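Before a colleague's protein record goes any further, I have to sign it off. What it holds is a sequence and that sequence's fold in C-alpha coordinate form. My question to you is simply how this chain folds and whether the C-alpha coordinates agree. Thanks in advance; the entry in question is below:
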Amino acid sequence: MTSASQTSDNTLLEVQGLKTHFFLDMGIVRAVDGVDFRISRGQTLGIVGESGCGKSVTAQSVMQIVPSPPGRIIDGSIVYFGSNSAVEISRFRANSREMRSIRGKEISYIFQEPMTSLSPVHTIGNQLEEAILLHTPVTRGEARGIAVEALARVRIGEPERIVNEYVHQLSGGMRQRVVIAQALSCNPQLLIADEPTTALDVTMQAQILRTIQDIQQESGMGLILITHDMGVIGQMADEVVVIYRGRVMEHGDVIAVFDEPLHPYTKALFDSIPRLDTDRPLRPISGSVPDPFLETTGCPFRDRCPSRFDACDSDAVPALAEVRPGHSARCYLHSGATEEGTE
Protein backbone atom coordinates (compact mmCIF):
# COMPACT_ATOMS: atom_id res chain seq x y z
CA MET A 1 0.00 0.00 0.00
CA THR A 2 1.09 3.59 -0.69
CA SER A 3 0.74 6.12 2.08
CA ALA A 4 -0.45 9.68 1.57
CA SER A 5 2.94 11.11 2.54
CA GLN A 6 4.70 9.06 -0.11
CA THR A 7 2.47 10.24 -2.94
CA SER A 8 1.76 13.90 -2.11
CA ASP A 9 4.58 15.23 -4.34
CA ASN A 10 3.35 13.27 -7.36
CA THR A 11 -0.20 14.58 -7.55
CA LEU A 12 -2.30 13.61 -10.57
CA LEU A 13 -5.67 15.09 -9.58
CA GLU A 14 -6.70 17.46 -6.81
CA VAL A 15 -10.31 18.24 -5.91
CA GLN A 16 -11.04 21.03 -3.44
CA GLY A 17 -14.38 22.23 -2.09
CA LEU A 18 -16.34 20.58 -4.90
CA LYS A 19 -20.06 21.33 -4.87
CA THR A 20 -22.34 19.92 -7.55
CA HIS A 21 -26.04 20.65 -7.15
CA PHE A 22 -29.14 19.74 -9.14
CA PHE A 23 -31.71 22.50 -9.57
CA LEU A 24 -35.13 20.91 -9.93
CA ASP A 25 -38.70 22.16 -9.74
CA MET A 26 -39.09 20.33 -6.42
CA GLY A 27 -36.00 21.96 -4.94
CA ILE A 28 -32.21 21.76 -4.88
CA VAL A 29 -30.40 18.44 -4.51
CA ARG A 30 -26.96 19.06 -3.00
CA ALA A 31 -25.50 15.86 -4.40
CA VAL A 32 -21.89 16.89 -3.76
CA ASP A 33 -21.58 19.49 -1.02
CA GLY A 34 -17.91 20.22 -0.37
CA VAL A 35 -15.70 17.26 -1.30
CA ASP A 36 -11.89 17.33 -1.12
CA PHE A 37 -9.41 14.66 -2.14
CA ARG A 38 -6.12 14.15 -3.96
CA ILE A 39 -4.81 11.21 -5.95
CA SER A 40 -1.24 10.55 -7.07
CA ARG A 41 0.17 8.73 -10.05
CA GLY A 42 0.03 4.97 -9.58
CA GLN A 43 -2.24 5.31 -6.55
CA THR A 44 -5.70 3.83 -5.99
CA LEU A 45 -8.21 6.01 -4.17
CA GLY A 46 -11.38 4.31 -3.01
CA ILE A 47 -14.58 6.35 -2.67
CA VAL A 48 -17.16 4.50 -0.62
CA GLY A 49 -20.64 5.14 0.75
CA GLU A 50 -24.27 4.11 0.41
CA SER A 51 -26.27 4.70 -2.74
CA GLY A 52 -27.38 8.31 -3.05
CA CYS A 53 -24.45 9.76 -1.11
CA GLY A 54 -22.76 11.51 -4.04
CA LYS A 55 -20.03 9.08 -5.11
CA SER A 56 -20.94 8.87 -8.79
CA VAL A 57 -21.78 12.57 -9.09
CA THR A 58 -18.32 13.36 -7.71
CA ALA A 59 -16.75 11.23 -10.44
CA GLN A 60 -19.04 12.66 -13.12
CA SER A 61 -18.00 16.14 -12.04
CA VAL A 62 -14.35 15.26 -12.62
CA MET A 63 -15.26 14.11 -16.15
CA GLN A 64 -17.63 17.05 -16.73
CA ILE A 65 -20.46 14.65 -17.63
CA VAL A 66 -22.98 15.71 -14.99
CA PRO A 67 -26.41 15.90 -16.68
CA SER A 68 -26.91 19.61 -17.34
CA PRO A 69 -29.45 20.94 -16.85
CA PRO A 70 -30.38 20.35 -14.06
CA GLY A 71 -26.92 19.57 -12.63
CA ARG A 72 -24.17 22.14 -12.27
CA ILE A 73 -20.82 22.53 -10.51
CA ILE A 74 -21.41 25.62 -8.40
CA ASP A 75 -18.16 25.82 -6.43
CA GLY A 76 -14.76 24.29 -5.91
CA SER A 77 -11.88 23.35 -8.16
CA ILE A 78 -10.77 20.22 -10.02
CA VAL A 79 -7.14 20.45 -11.09
CA TYR A 80 -5.61 17.81 -13.33
CA PHE A 81 -1.82 17.57 -13.45
CA GLY A 82 -1.48 16.09 -16.93
CA SER A 83 1.41 15.32 -19.20
CA ASN A 84 2.07 18.95 -20.10
CA SER A 85 0.85 21.19 -17.28
CA ALA A 86 -1.72 21.60 -14.53
CA VAL A 87 -5.17 22.54 -15.82
CA GLU A 88 -8.27 23.46 -13.83
CA ILE A 89 -10.79 21.34 -15.67
CA SER A 90 -13.66 22.60 -13.50
CA ARG A 91 -13.41 25.84 -15.52
CA PHE A 92 -13.99 24.09 -18.85
CA ARG A 93 -17.42 23.71 -20.40
CA ALA A 94 -18.49 20.09 -20.77
CA ASN A 95 -18.43 20.26 -24.58
CA SER A 96 -15.33 22.42 -24.88
CA ARG A 97 -12.38 21.40 -27.04
CA GLU A 98 -10.14 21.34 -23.94
CA MET A 99 -12.43 18.98 -22.07
CA ARG A 100 -12.93 16.70 -25.07
CA SER A 101 -9.15 16.38 -25.41
CA ILE A 102 -8.89 15.23 -21.78
CA ARG A 103 -11.99 13.05 -21.54
CA GLY A 104 -11.23 9.56 -22.84
CA LYS A 105 -7.56 10.25 -23.53
CA GLU A 106 -6.11 11.59 -20.26
CA ILE A 107 -8.96 10.56 -17.95
CA SER A 108 -11.22 7.59 -18.72
CA TYR A 109 -14.40 6.30 -17.08
CA ILE A 110 -15.76 2.79 -16.59
CA PHE A 111 -19.50 2.97 -16.06
CA GLN A 112 -21.42 0.69 -13.71
CA GLU A 113 -23.60 -0.89 -16.37
CA PRO A 114 -21.88 -1.84 -19.67
CA MET A 115 -25.12 -1.64 -21.65
CA THR A 116 -25.29 2.12 -20.97
CA SER A 117 -21.91 2.74 -22.60
CA LEU A 118 -21.94 0.16 -25.42
CA SER A 119 -24.03 0.51 -28.56
CA PRO A 120 -26.20 -2.46 -29.57
CA VAL A 121 -26.02 -1.55 -33.28
CA HIS A 122 -22.24 -1.28 -33.75
CA THR A 123 -19.63 -3.99 -33.51
CA ILE A 124 -17.27 -4.08 -30.54
CA GLY A 125 -14.40 -3.20 -32.86
CA ASN A 126 -16.13 -0.14 -34.29
CA GLN A 127 -16.85 1.20 -30.82
CA LEU A 128 -13.26 0.81 -29.65
CA GLU A 129 -11.90 2.28 -32.88
CA GLU A 130 -14.04 5.40 -32.51
CA ALA A 131 -12.23 6.54 -29.35
CA ILE A 132 -8.83 5.54 -30.73
CA LEU A 133 -9.33 7.53 -33.95
CA LEU A 134 -10.61 10.52 -31.99
CA HIS A 135 -7.55 10.79 -29.75
CA THR A 136 -4.72 9.11 -31.68
CA PRO A 137 -3.20 10.02 -35.09
CA VAL A 138 -3.56 6.55 -36.64
CA THR A 139 -5.28 5.03 -39.66
CA ARG A 140 -8.45 2.98 -39.33
CA GLY A 141 -6.46 -0.19 -39.95
CA GLU A 142 -4.02 0.73 -37.19
CA ALA A 143 -6.95 1.55 -34.90
CA ARG A 144 -8.34 -1.94 -35.49
CA GLY A 145 -5.00 -3.41 -34.40
CA ILE A 146 -4.97 -1.28 -31.25
CA ALA A 147 -8.55 -2.39 -30.51
CA VAL A 148 -7.56 -6.05 -30.77
CA GLU A 149 -4.58 -5.42 -28.48
CA ALA A 150 -6.83 -3.64 -25.97
CA LEU A 151 -9.19 -6.63 -25.83
CA ALA A 152 -6.28 -9.01 -25.37
CA ARG A 153 -4.95 -6.77 -22.60
CA VAL A 154 -8.11 -7.27 -20.56
CA ARG A 155 -7.85 -11.06 -20.93
CA ILE A 156 -10.50 -11.55 -23.62
CA GLY A 157 -9.88 -14.73 -25.58
CA GLU A 158 -9.99 -14.63 -29.38
CA PRO A 159 -9.98 -10.82 -29.59
CA GLU A 160 -9.77 -10.97 -33.42
CA ARG A 161 -13.21 -12.59 -33.39
CA ILE A 162 -14.73 -10.48 -30.62
CA VAL A 163 -14.07 -7.19 -32.48
CA ASN A 164 -16.57 -8.33 -35.11
CA GLU A 165 -19.33 -9.26 -32.65
CA TYR A 166 -22.11 -7.22 -31.06
CA VAL A 167 -22.73 -6.57 -27.40
CA HIS A 168 -25.77 -8.89 -27.20
CA GLN A 169 -23.50 -11.78 -28.20
CA LEU A 170 -21.32 -11.37 -25.09
CA SER A 171 -21.78 -12.43 -21.47
CA GLY A 172 -21.97 -9.87 -18.67
CA GLY A 173 -18.34 -10.44 -17.71
CA MET A 174 -17.20 -10.09 -21.32
CA ARG A 175 -19.15 -6.86 -21.71
CA GLN A 176 -17.48 -5.42 -18.63
CA ARG A 177 -14.06 -6.36 -20.02
CA VAL A 178 -14.93 -4.63 -23.30
CA VAL A 179 -15.85 -1.46 -21.36
CA ILE A 180 -12.50 -1.63 -19.57
CA ALA A 181 -10.70 -2.16 -22.88
CA GLN A 182 -12.53 0.85 -24.31
CA ALA A 183 -11.50 3.01 -21.34
CA LEU A 184 -7.86 1.90 -21.56
CA SER A 185 -7.48 2.00 -25.35
CA CYS A 186 -5.84 5.45 -25.31
CA ASN A 187 -3.61 4.73 -22.28
CA PRO A 188 -5.13 7.27 -19.84
CA GLN A 189 -3.23 8.73 -16.91
CA LEU A 190 -6.28 8.37 -14.65
CA LEU A 191 -9.03 5.74 -14.70
CA ILE A 192 -12.32 6.21 -12.84
CA ALA A 193 -14.13 2.92 -12.21
CA ASP A 194 -17.71 3.45 -11.03
CA GLU A 195 -19.00 0.25 -9.38
CA PRO A 196 -17.29 -1.79 -12.13
CA THR A 197 -18.33 -5.21 -10.78
CA THR A 198 -21.69 -4.66 -9.05
CA ALA A 199 -23.76 -6.77 -11.47
CA LEU A 200 -21.25 -9.66 -11.64
CA ASP A 201 -20.94 -12.84 -9.60
CA VAL A 202 -18.18 -13.11 -7.01
CA THR A 203 -15.83 -15.13 -9.24
CA MET A 204 -16.16 -12.75 -12.18
CA GLN A 205 -15.85 -9.75 -9.85
CA ALA A 206 -12.50 -11.04 -8.57
CA GLN A 207 -11.24 -11.59 -12.12
CA ILE A 208 -12.26 -8.11 -13.28
CA LEU A 209 -10.69 -6.42 -10.26
CA ARG A 210 -7.48 -8.40 -10.75
CA THR A 211 -7.39 -7.36 -14.41
CA ILE A 212 -7.76 -3.67 -13.49
CA GLN A 213 -5.11 -4.00 -10.79
CA ASP A 214 -2.63 -5.75 -13.11
CA ILE A 215 -3.06 -3.12 -15.84
CA GLN A 216 -2.64 -0.33 -13.31
CA GLN A 217 0.63 -1.82 -12.09
CA GLU A 218 1.87 -2.21 -15.66
CA SER A 219 0.96 1.33 -16.73
CA GLY A 220 1.38 3.35 -13.53
CA MET A 221 -1.96 5.10 -13.99
CA GLY A 222 -3.99 6.50 -11.11
CA LEU A 223 -7.27 4.77 -10.24
CA ILE A 224 -10.39 6.14 -8.55
CA LEU A 225 -12.54 3.20 -7.49
CA ILE A 226 -16.15 3.98 -6.56
CA THR A 227 -18.04 1.30 -4.66
CA HIS A 228 -20.35 0.57 -1.75
CA ASP A 229 -18.31 -2.58 -0.98
CA MET A 230 -15.77 -2.13 1.82
CA GLY A 231 -14.26 -5.52 0.95
CA VAL A 232 -13.34 -4.27 -2.54
CA ILE A 233 -11.85 -1.12 -0.99
CA GLY A 234 -9.71 -3.22 1.34
CA GLN A 235 -8.49 -5.35 -1.54
CA MET A 236 -7.75 -2.56 -4.03
CA ALA A 237 -7.26 0.87 -2.46
CA ASP A 238 -4.31 2.75 -0.99
CA GLU A 239 -6.46 5.50 0.48
CA VAL A 240 -10.18 5.67 1.16
CA VAL A 241 -12.67 8.54 1.18
CA VAL A 242 -15.96 7.82 2.96
CA ILE A 243 -18.79 10.00 1.62
CA TYR A 244 -22.20 10.56 3.17
CA ARG A 245 -24.79 12.95 1.78
CA GLY A 246 -22.29 14.73 -0.42
CA ARG A 247 -19.66 15.28 2.28
CA VAL A 248 -16.43 13.52 3.22
CA MET A 249 -16.97 11.82 6.59
CA GLU A 250 -13.56 10.16 6.82
CA HIS A 251 -10.38 10.11 4.76
CA GLY A 252 -7.16 8.24 5.33
CA ASP A 253 -4.78 5.45 4.49
CA VAL A 254 -6.82 2.31 3.91
CA ILE A 255 -4.92 0.29 6.53
CA ALA A 256 -5.47 2.96 9.17
CA VAL A 257 -9.16 3.30 8.33
CA PHE A 258 -9.72 -0.45 8.35
CA ASP A 259 -7.73 -1.00 11.55
CA GLU A 260 -9.34 1.83 13.51
CA PRO A 261 -12.19 3.69 11.79
CA LEU A 262 -12.89 7.07 13.36
CA HIS A 263 -16.36 8.01 12.16
CA PRO A 264 -19.50 6.18 13.35
CA TYR A 265 -20.68 5.99 9.73
CA THR A 266 -17.50 4.19 8.66
CA LYS A 267 -17.88 1.82 11.60
CA ALA A 268 -21.50 1.19 10.61
CA LEU A 269 -20.43 0.33 7.06
CA PHE A 270 -18.00 -2.24 8.44
CA ASP A 271 -20.62 -3.68 10.81
CA SER A 272 -23.04 -4.19 7.92
CA ILE A 273 -20.59 -6.46 6.04
CA PRO A 274 -21.27 -10.23 6.34
CA ARG A 275 -18.27 -11.91 8.01
CA LEU A 276 -17.32 -15.58 7.92
CA ASP A 277 -14.62 -15.33 10.59
CA THR A 278 -16.86 -14.27 13.45
CA ASP A 279 -20.15 -15.13 15.10
CA ARG A 280 -21.05 -11.44 15.34
CA PRO A 281 -24.55 -10.91 13.95
CA LEU A 282 -24.98 -8.73 10.89
CA ARG A 283 -25.91 -5.18 11.93
CA PRO A 284 -27.48 -3.15 9.11
CA ILE A 285 -27.30 0.64 9.37
CA SER A 286 -30.50 1.91 10.94
CA GLY A 287 -32.68 4.27 8.95
CA SER A 288 -31.85 5.44 5.45
CA VAL A 289 -30.09 8.26 3.64
CA PRO A 290 -32.28 11.37 4.12
CA ASP A 291 -34.51 12.73 1.37
CA PRO A 292 -32.14 14.58 -1.01
CA PHE A 293 -34.57 17.52 -1.17
CA LEU A 294 -34.59 17.90 2.61
CA GLU A 295 -32.36 20.76 3.75
CA THR A 296 -30.65 19.74 6.98
CA THR A 297 -28.37 21.39 9.51
CA GLY A 298 -25.54 20.02 11.60
CA CYS A 299 -23.93 16.62 11.15
CA PRO A 300 -25.64 14.91 8.20
CA PHE A 301 -25.38 11.48 9.88
CA ARG A 302 -26.59 12.38 13.37
CA ASP A 303 -30.17 11.06 13.00
CA ARG A 304 -28.80 7.58 12.27
CA CYS A 305 -25.74 7.71 14.51
CA PRO A 306 -25.49 5.24 17.43
CA SER A 307 -22.81 7.45 19.07
CA ARG A 308 -24.85 10.66 19.07
CA PHE A 309 -24.34 12.89 22.12
CA ASP A 310 -25.20 16.46 23.16
CA ALA A 311 -22.65 18.25 20.95
CA CYS A 312 -24.14 16.58 17.87
CA ASP A 313 -27.31 18.67 18.26
CA SER A 314 -25.43 21.76 17.07
CA ASP A 315 -26.78 23.29 13.85
CA ALA A 316 -23.22 23.81 12.60
CA VAL A 317 -21.54 21.16 10.45
CA PRO A 318 -18.50 19.57 12.16
CA ALA A 319 -15.25 20.26 10.34
CA LEU A 320 -13.18 17.56 8.68
CA ALA A 321 -10.36 17.45 11.22
CA GLU A 322 -7.08 15.53 11.16
CA VAL A 323 -7.21 13.20 14.14
CA ARG A 324 -4.00 11.36 13.33
CA PRO A 325 -1.36 12.13 10.68
CA GLY A 326 -3.04 11.51 7.32
CA HIS A 327 -6.31 10.33 8.92
CA SER A 328 -9.24 12.75 9.19
CA ALA A 329 -12.87 12.57 10.31
CA ARG A 330 -15.88 14.91 10.30
CA CYS A 331 -17.29 14.15 13.74
CA TYR A 332 -17.85 15.83 17.11
CA LEU A 333 -16.37 12.75 18.77
CA HIS A 334 -12.98 13.91 17.55
CA SER A 335 -13.27 17.66 17.11
CA GLY A 336 -15.49 20.45 18.38
CA ALA A 337 -14.52 22.61 15.43
CA THR A 338 -17.30 23.55 13.01
CA GLU A 339 -17.45 24.96 9.53
CA GLU A 340 -18.64 28.51 9.15
CA GLY A 341 -22.39 28.87 8.84
CA THR A 342 -25.03 26.20 8.65
CA GLU A 343 -26.51 24.20 5.86
Q: What stands out?
A: The CA atoms of residues 180 and 240 lie 22 Å apart.
